[in-house]
Amino acid sequence: MSMVSRKRTLFVALCVLCTVLFAGSAFAEEKIIKIGTLFPLTGPSAVSGQNCLNSVLAAAEVINNANPDLNIPLAEKAGLLDGYKVVIVKADHQGKPDVAKSEAERLYNQEGVFAIIGSYNSSATKPASAVAERAKKLFLCGASSSAALTERDFKYFFRHAPTDAIESKEFTDYIEYLNKEKNAGIKTIGLFYENTEFGKHAADEGKKAAKEIGLEVVADVPFNNAATNLSSEVQTLKAANPDVVFGAALGADYSLWVRTMKQVNWLPKMAVNYCTGYQNPAVQKELAGDGDYFMGGMSFSPELAQKFMPEAIKVQEKYYRPLANQEFDSDSLQEGVMLLILAQAIEKAGGLDTEKVREILATETFVSPLSLSGEVAFEPGGQNVKALSVITQMKDLKYNTIYPTKYQDSEPMYPMAPWDKR
Amino acid sequence: MTKKTTLSDRLWYLFLAAALVLPFIPGGIGNSFHGHVLTMVLLYAAMAQAWNIISGYCGQTSFGHAVFFGIGAYGAAMAVVQFNTLPWYGAPVGAVVAAVTSVLISAPCFKLKGHYFAIATFAIVEIFSRLFMIWDWVGGAIGLDYPILDDGWRNFSWSSDKNGYYLGALALFTLIFGVVRWIESHRMGYYFRAVREGQETAESLGVHSTAVKLSAMALSAGLTALCGAFFAQYNYRVDPPMVMSLDISMKFLLITILGGLGTFWGPLLGAAVLIPLQEYTRAYLSHLGSGVDLIIFGIIIILTMIKQPMGIMGIIRGVTRRTSTVPAKEGDA
What is the pLDDT of residues B269-309, one digit of tens each? Predict the structure, then answer.
């Protein structure tokens, strides 16, 4: 290559790089609404974070394009207000609270986003949403489940997912139902959870709910997330041998936990999970039959959606699957739902006045065909009072709904089949 | 007799003057992302310089500084969150607790030499991190979250304008670099370097090596804790993985080694390269997915270390040597 052509190539490469890096400045001339997303795109929760991001991108497609085939508010027309398009500005918090805080500041101050959707890990959502509250900007949260998030009396924070407290109550209601209707004889409980904001809160709520129905807590086993070995923790559970275990282990930790239980040849009579790796279809595929008989709280499953949320399946096939190459899961879907709710609030406000949009989010009830309850409404503090989840049980890579009975499509398989009889 | 002003002195005063003026220039700091990056450069340079006292000047490689950083962070956070008072009370308490803890930990560990000392400090981070994880009084695994505070120096909190944080970081930077500058030119600095170059030789000349190492460690830990307190105030939150992990310890090492171990300017140069690289690659390339930012970050560090194992200071000294006929004096670069 001659010197001249080498220089020319270098010049072209620099132009391309500049175009990519500074493409953002061109947005100012268009009718756009910038929405920031803040998820763990790298680090231990990266897979879930990518799914959450893809869900928000799918929701943006629903808003930006005319979708007469979808029975979702605002889907029929293209864009918001008088032709505004939603542009997603992505950021990665790596699962670190300090990074989440500085990225939230960058999104609001540098990128000029109208609102942020995120952040999956409760420990990252907390400082990032505090940035929003201080700056009087909107922060919408799909999946983070720590009850503490909506106990701060924040005015600009709104969360879709049921909290650990709501799920714990549902789990113990189910145990009472099993004891009464199926004579299950569940008397003792163990807690297995990652030692983080999410896991600790879930375990605390689980203990509280268990004590209320008279269950004896015989094992309280935290573990460090992104673990490489859980043998000693599982041996502790095995030694205490609780009738039921409440689990809070995300992604790869969940599959390691299940596999370690198989290694030590032990299972409780029943294992119920908070929003964890249990909900992720990719994790279940990886576990194959080993994930069978485990249970978990869910706001979405393909089986549930066929019956109660048909529009979610349509969005999944039209926009989400091409991006993520898999089905929705509870966590990811809820992040996308929050963008659809925000879009409705902006449309009702008739513009981008943060205070007006906040007021509408805080006071109105929104139609939400992608939510299990079909509606979303926020109480002071930002919790979705219509949040609903059901208990499902995994069998042959299917999430069978077993409780509440209103949604039940299968009989619960209780107790769990031992490892040597599968 | 007046002391001759060296090139290093002139650079030091010039740097401080420029850094002090910056927030008063419109668009200098404000609430910009660049302001955040500059604040972090000053903080991490100060942290690395505090670590440089024991590891660079005194030759005792410590992987345990995350413990002292964490204690400082918890000092400020406990004052605000648990005792409902000002961080100004918590920060010095944290620094004293960190210094005392460092002496208690180091006294037995200093019986070990070289790699064995480093490995012992490695384990200490894990022990403290686990302890804080299960210690409910300090928030356990959930950590401590700050309430919404009024902006200003009283609470050491600013949400809309980062000038206060920048000036706070600059003050911390000046304090720690100033202390090291003083040490370099006084008897204590010679003791530190004597112990680093050969403990037995130093002892044969009457230097009490254990006392020297313990005082270096206490000073280093106390100053590190002040950086931790700043970090807590800046992020409005502490939890063990955030402030007391091996990740934090590795940052002390990486910045100092990249800049130049045992040199005055090394920590600043290391932070000035590493922190913007880390922040800007994450901010502007993370959307490409799959950790492209981290890959680029890693490649640049590997290339720098292959090219010049003595760090950026090594590169500068090499260039100075080639372009000047007069050999550079120690402390000039």
Answer: 999 988 998 888 888 877 665 566 667 767 777 777 777 77
| Two structure tokens written together for B182 | 């003083």
Q: What is the pLDDT of residue A252?
A: 84
Q: Which CATH architecture has domain A165-298+390-421?
A: 3-Layer(aba) Sandwich (3.40)
Q: Full-prediction pTM beyond 0.90?
A: no
**Does the pLDDT at position B104 exceed 70?**
yes
- Closest residue to B33, CB basis, from A99, A110, A199: A110
Contact A298, A15 (CB under 8 A): no
Q: At what angle do helices B311-323 and B266-285 cross, to 10 degrees?
A: 120
Least CB–CB distance from B286: residue in A91, A131, A197: A91
* CATH classification for the domain delimited by A29-162+305-377, as one of 3.40.1280.10, 3.30.70.560, 3.40.50.2300, 3.40.50.150: 3.40.50.2300
Task: Say yes or no: A91 contacts chain B, CB-CB below 8 A.
Answer: yes
Q: Which residues of A touch B291 (CB under 8 A)?
A: 41-42, 46
Whether domain B7-323 has CATH 1.10.3470: the reply is yes
Categorize the per-residue pLDDT at B333 as very low, low, confident or very high, splitting at 50, 70 and 90: very low
Q: How many CA atoms lie within 13 A of B130 on its CB side?
A: 8
Pairing mode of beta strands A157-159, A138-141: parallel
pLDDT in the model for residue B330: 46
Single-letter code of the amino acid located at B160: S
Same fold, A29-162+305-377 and A165-298+390-421: yes
Q: Chain B within 8 Å of A106 (Cβ-Cβ)? A: yes
Name which residue leads in pLDDT, A42 or A317. Answer: A317
Task: Report domain extents, chain A.
Answer: 29-162+305-377, 165-298+390-421
Residue A97's nearest CA partner among A198, A238, A219, A217 is A198
Residue A383 has pLDDT above 80, yes or no: yes
What distance in Å separates residue A196's CA from the closest CA in chain B?
5
Q: Is A195 on the interface with B (CB under 8 A)?
A: yes
Angle at B250 between CA B244 and CA B251, to 5 degrees: 90
Q: In the predicted model, is pLDDT for residue A376 greater than 60?
A: yes
Interchain proximity B32–A110, CB inside 8 Å: yes
Res A239: pLDDT: 96
Q: Tell me whether 0.90 is exceeded by the ipTM.
A: no
